[in-house]
Amino acid sequence: MGSSKKEKFSKAMLFILLFGIVSLFSDMTHEGASSIRGAYLSLLGASAGTIGFISGLGELIGYSMRYMFGKLTDKTKQYWPMTVAGYILDVMAVPALALVGEHGWIAACALLVIQRMGKAIKKPAKDTIMSFAASQEGAGKSFGIQEVLDQIGAFLGPVLLYLVMLFKTEGSTFEVYSTGFAVLAIPGAITIILLLVTKHKFSNPEHFEPEPKEYIPFKMKKEFILYIAGISLFAFGFIDYSIIIMHVSNTYANLSSGLTETTTLVNSGTLPLLYAGAMLIDAVAALFFGLMYDKKGVKALIWSTIISAPFAIFVFGLHSVPMVLLGIALWGVGMGAQESILKAAVTNMVPKASRATGYGIFECSFGVFWFLGSWLMGVLYDVSIPAMIAVSVATQLMAIPLYLASSRLNRSI
Fold first, then answer.
1. Which helix (H) or strand (E) holds 406?
2. Which of 45, 199, 235, 249 has the fewest CB neighbours in a 10 Å radius?
């Protein structure tokens, strides 16, 4: 009986894989949209400052509300209803972008905020459900596997949009983009169907993790506060992809002055492929650093930060397509580590009964600082790109001493 739990596909691992496939189609939907979101908003008439503000506002709402929904989830223990409701809102808002008018950047921005609200509802409950199964299989490994499946979807979504753009040769750029958003309704529908199948098969995922012998109330311990401070600095400096793709679109894809290197590697049709490539690197990094976290703890987070922090130098500071591609790859490494290690650490720091609250606090702080950082980066982009690069790199590296201090206080990370 004991050996069966160690089988390659235990019930916990089967759940992780099935839930990961749900995430695959979900990410295919909204990350497909993310690959052209910045360019689309710019096309509809939004400025760089507005795009930075809206991207950050979406993250602010999507993350700050997670504390409230995390508390609600812990209080009610309604893990599945919260997860399903959030997913429905999340994947429905994306294809609705096809319905905005040619100058409807305000409506498009509103839909992006609604999509983020869907994520706010689902994420604490979803991550908590995952943590129950992860307690059996290893937190870093489990969240790493889920992130790999996430990012396969995040790769396929932009590729799907690339194919739409390739075959839809008639109509304006706006009409091509609108068609792309409409096509994303297909993976959105598959997401909901598979989610309901997973819910039916695993109706009580909390049973994966044994109940503690005694109730341990949640407290904001010093190590958790230091950890939250660290991830907040990381979030502040991590430039939103909307600003990256707007910069690449304006700097390279719209040039027609005979620069064959730029017109062959980067043009309006290949923009989704840049994001797809970043998502593949994200997937590999998530699994690699997730497995490293299970063995080395917080050292994995330090190494991933050191590697990814300079991405802004290559994307915004060096005017060369190969350097831009390297910068986007480093950005993908940062995203992968963010999705696997950061969540795994919370699993190890917060007791089972209060874990959704712990995830809510973690994601709320992350989102508030992502918002402030995105807004500042958007403003700095219009004022001084070197200043934007300096702030981005410095604040990410400033997180490392806080990770180390948190790790010394909590040996489980």
1. helix 385-409
2. 45
Residues 6+ positions from 390 with CB-CB distance below 8 Å: none
What is the DSSP-derived secondary structure letter of residue 97?
A: G
**Could you tell me if 156 and 186 are in contact, meaning their C-beta atoms sit under 8 angstroms apart?**
no
Number of helices (H), then strands (E), belonging to the chain: the values are 16, 0
- Residues 324-329: contacts with CB within 8 Å, 24+ apart? 324/248, 324/252, 324/266, 325/265, 325/274, 325/277, 328/244, 328/274, 328/277, 328/278, 329/277, 329/278, 329/281
Q: What 8-state DSSP symbol labels residue 310?
A: T
CATH code matching the domain that covers 10-205+220-409, chosen among 1.20.1200.10, 1.20.1250.20, 3.30.70.240, 1.10.246.40: 1.20.1250.20
How many other CB atoms are there within 10 angstroms of residue 138's CB atom? 18
Q: Confidence band (pLDDT; 50, 70, 90) for 412?
A: low
Residues 6+ positions from 76 with CB-CB distance below 8 Å = none
Q: What is the pLDDT of residues 139-150, one digit of tens each?
A: 788 888 888 898
CA angle, residues 149, 64, 84, in degrees to nearest 5: 45
Q: What's the predicted TM-score (pTM) here? A: 0.73
Residue 260 has pLDDT above 60, yes or no: no
Helix, strand or coil for residue 254? coil
More reliable by pLDDT, 18 or 45: 18
| Lowest mean per-residue pLDDT among 83-92, 102-111, 244-253 | 244-253
The residues, any chain, with a CB within 8 Å of residue 279's CB and separated by 6 or more, are 27, 31, 151, 154, 155, 158, 332
For the ranges 133-147, 209-223, 397-411, the maximum mean pLDDT occurs at 397-411
